[in-house]
Amino acid sequence: MIPKGFTSSVNDFSLIDKDVGNYFGGVFNGSNIYSTNDYSIVDLGKNGPNGEQLFKIQLDFNPGWNAAQNFGGQFKLTLDPIK
Hints:
With about 80 residues, the chain is mainly beta. It contains no helices and 6 strands.
């Protein structure tokens, strides 16, 4: 869910592909072996209770806690303020 007052698109999502520890204070518990073939993102529109924009992220695998299956929040998203 993107807060009201901002906008984004499926093209604004990207994977953190190298040096993932730099984004997590040097601590990263997941794997960064995933590619764009491992997930899909759908824009569900502004359907939140206050007009928030919703996205659905679907993985093609079941995530788990072990390092090989831990997706670890590897998405980077760019938001633009609505003017």
